[in-house]
Amino acid sequence: MAQSRLNRLLQYGLKAAPQGPIKVEKALSDYINSYFDDFYAEGFFNDIDEKNDHEGHVKTVQVNKYERSSIARNKCIDYWGKNCLICGMDFELTYGEYGKGFIHVHHLRPLYMVKKDYIVDYKNDLIPVCPNCHAMIHRIPNGEKLSVEEIKQKLGLCIKEHE
Ligand SMILES: [Zn+2]
Ligand SMILES: [Zn+2]
Q: How far, in Å, is the centroid of ligand 1 from the Cα of 124?
């Protein structure tokens, strides 16, 4: 497993297993970033939507280039709804008031591929997903990602098309 991941990095231009900090070529850094950008932007580690701390102070940890996608995130939820588009999970229904407003937003067009001035299309680029389905979208068990449709099929759910 670890070996095949290293092989992949080597494929993308890594010279050898790094022993410390190294400089990497763009193709390799894009490849590596593809694993992180989306996660950071969507709240795997930091929910982009929760900008205020408990005292209402604005957090300064938000990354500028994702500020706009926060607006797109809200538009995405306005458009698609607040439930997971794959399994239908509704956090407010499950967790009551505490879960209200919680949902991840998955970027169908990975942010690392998006130019700085690209305006996120909240209808076609973003979908609301629960963290479970989100993790499944990003899971790469055999080096191949499943599409959103394929994950829906795995769940055996037939999600009504959004008109
Ligand atoms: Zn889900
Ligand atoms: Zn995602």
A: 18
Residue 31 Cα to ligand 1 middle (Å): 26
Whether residue 4 is contained in a domain is answered as: no
Ligand nearest to the CA of 83: 1
Letter string b/e over residues 50-89, b meaning 16 or more CB atoms within 10 A of that residue's CB: eeeeeeeeeeeeeeeebeebeebbebbbeebebbbbbbeb
| More confident: 141 or 2 | 141
Give the ligand with the smallest distance to the CA of 38: 2
The Å distance, Cα 133 to ligand 1 centre, comes to 4
127 contacts 105 by C-beta, under 8 angstroms: yes
Domain of residue 57 covers 26-155
Q: Does residue 17 lie within any of the structural domains?
A: no
**For 43-67, what is each residue's pLDDT tens digit?**
443 333 334 444 444 443 333 345 4
**Residues bordering ligand 1, an ion, CB closer than 5 Å:** 84, 86-87, 89, 130, 133
Residue 8, in any domain of the structure: no
Number of domains in the chain: 1
Please write the tens of the pLDDT for every residue from 143-158. 788 888 899 888 875 5
Tell whether 148 is covered by a domain. yes
Read off the pTM.
0.56
